[in-house]
Amino acid sequence: MIRTAQAAAVMTAAALSGLAPAQNGPPGSGAPPGPGLILADATSGSGISMTMVCGAPVGKKLWLPELLGAGAAWLDADTDGTLDLFLIGGASFESPRPAPGRNRLYKGDGQGRFHDITSLAGVAGGGWGYGAAVGDYDGDGDDDLFVTQMGPDVLYKNNGNGTFSDVTARARVGDPGLGSSAAFFDADGDGDLDLLVLNYVDFDRGRVPARGSTGALGNPACTESGIPVACGPRGLPAPQNTFYRNNGDGTFRDDTAGAGFRLKPGRYALGVVTGDFDNDGDADVYIANDSSINSLWRNEGGRFTDVGVYTLAALSGEGTPQASMGTDFGDWNGDGWLDLVTTNFSQDLNTVYRNELGRRFEDVSFAAGMGETFMRLSWGVGWRDFDLDGIPDLFIANGHIYPEVDGRAIGTRFRQPSDLYLGNGSRFFRAPALGGLAVQESFRGAAFADYDRDGDVDVILTALDSEPVLLRNETRAGAGAPHFVQFVLPVGARVTLTAGGRKQMQEQTGGGSYLSASERLLTFGLGAATRVETCEIRWPGGARQPFSVDQVDRRYRPATPPRPPAPPAPG
Amino acid sequence: MREGTQVLARKGAIRRVWRLALTIGGAAAAVCAPALEPAPTAEALRLQARTLRAGGHKDQALPLLEQAVRQGPATAAIYVDLGVALADAGRLGDAETAYREALALSPDDPYALANLGSLAYQRGDIEQSAEIYSRVVAANPGSLVGHCRLGHALRFLGGTAEARREYGAALALEPATPREARLRWDAAVSLAVLDLADGNPARAAELLAFVEAAIPDHPRAHYLRARALAELGRGAEAERELRVHLELINAGTLPSVLTVGDDAPDAAP
Fold first, then answer.
1. What is the CATH superfamily name and number for domain B43-107?
2. Rounded to two decimals, what is the model's pTM?
3. N or C: which end of chain B has fewer CB within 10 A?
4. pLDDT digit string (tens) for A24-66?
5. CATH code of domain B180-262
6. Chain A residues with CB inside 8 Å of B122's CB?
7. Are A227 and B90 inside 8 Å of each other by CB?
8. B261 CA: distance to closest CA in chain A (Å)
């Protein structure tokens, strides 16, 4: 027996711990009645058909960049008022350079049918694409499109007639890194959209051993649960992200250092979302990093400081760096503060943080019901009110990166279903795996939109080396459907409303999810309420405006008020 | 009774298939091997494998243990170590079979049970993990590892009060090894986690101060104490704790928060 000098202290600790049974049981016990079908698989017959290529075929992949997948973006490409869909096609190391363009742009008819207009639009690309961001960077009223690639990235300017022009060189945004997610947002409050581009890893096939090669043997970064896997990201150089400040004339300048975004060392960045977590009127930035500390960048007059660790938002609740992929801001508990979610590797929970008055974040994953995500490997994510009951739900796209896990009895599979967690304001409950939620793929991106204009939130999912899956929300189908109200607002605007006695807040965030861009639309579920009692819009820059919602089940496009003169941009 | 007989018959069938597989492999190996030296005993092979594994040569341990099983007599300890070597190789299904073989020979083998519980936890079957660790502590109430891991599983399942009881039981035990001593401090830290979840940051902070005094570089204590202090409005102290925690992160890797504390498989002694 070992009798350490610490024994007495341990016993004191035991005494201090108070071994009486705790009074609190698991919160949120008492699950709501199980819902029926919420998300139907609407892919078949939609006209969407494109197989993503991300490196060598599944089972033959040797390198980390082949595991990331690619994203999707909802946008109104031809400014006709209906939503269109952009899908990133990917490429492989064997593809010629430039590769044959594999991206696809599908024009939507607002009824759930799409047809390919890629050639006409000129967005097929020619590189190995990963992520997409949508924003009106030039302020001409239409959706422009940014695509991250295995360097250099591409900016497509919308010509306003359903065609796009590659303006990367002129705009000076051709970051050469291995880009992952990107976000348009107004970092400095000057009224135009700046651009933050994440880079995942400095990757050189000449310096990284291939999966299962002699050079990988014995390298812990090349093994997972005893299985030889693609090496990294640990052990590989971590790059810097790139922040482009909008010059207001159709060009950008790299102001990464000036804005404070430079980190030493870099981190393996995958997911980004922007939102005002401290309610001070400007846009802050959260970055989900793989196998390293996450970052929460607080906006301090257009310059940014990483306060992630000191606000307890950068690590798990027990202080461990996680392998994070996707992220989103949303006020899931209705207290008027933006909370956070990160999706993580398997054998870890997806992390739900509760924002404590903008001062710090509390990891409440267990209490929120995220224990069920333990074996999932999760990517795209979003807080949306899928069942329109006035309480945000949580959608998560899942899929492993290693097909080798199949048949290894380790409790997880390569192809996994996506999960919809229905919220009750304090906890989430997994919806039954019906319809589209029963489809299993190695999913990656998830982008949210009301593509059929029926008032509820639909989803497009991307899948590694497979076809996308379109999930149509059935909540508004049939009689007695819950009511809603929608707002089309610029990034950074937020709406606070009360209906049926319930207060809700949503902000139009930048970025969010993983490699994907959702429709710029706020959808509020009203349940059975047929009127909105109060509604206020807080515009980017902080101006507040009461807004009268005359009628429910409608989409509103409030006019942007004139802006006060902007302060001079830093840098 | 009948069901029990069927279970035993199934176990016997598994064992026969397992031995057949090893025999076939062994016959192939015997063709190539020189037959000059006397074969070491199965137990000697096991001890040799242990030495190799301890020296970082995990891949070389597995063939020796497979040989030990083929050669016989296979003991529970040999099957446990075989399971550990198989787990090292990522063959978790085979590892589970080996642990069950050990239990067929020695139904309360603490190492086989502990490793089975750990495997169940790692594959997300937390309820089964809790059941197995309940068996561990029922068979051996002095199992510090068992109490700690049962506490983790119960905490995962939302059984806060039950988890608290198990961590308390772990704290009350005398550690027999340095690893157990570390686990006991982990139990104290886990109690602090429960205190935080239960809205008692003051008690968590005090408990963690004891842990920090004993183990200044404990990987979780500083962060958790920072959380507690932040909740108590002691921001400056919380920041100091976070700085220490960051230094620890930068100095090396931290264990995953949700694997079973110290989740390395337990080789037999």
1. Tetratricopeptide repeat domain (1.25.40.10)
2. 0.89
3. N
4. 333 333 344 456 789 999 999 999 999 999 999 999 999 999 9
5. 1.25.40.10
6. 347, 410-411
7. yes
8. 12
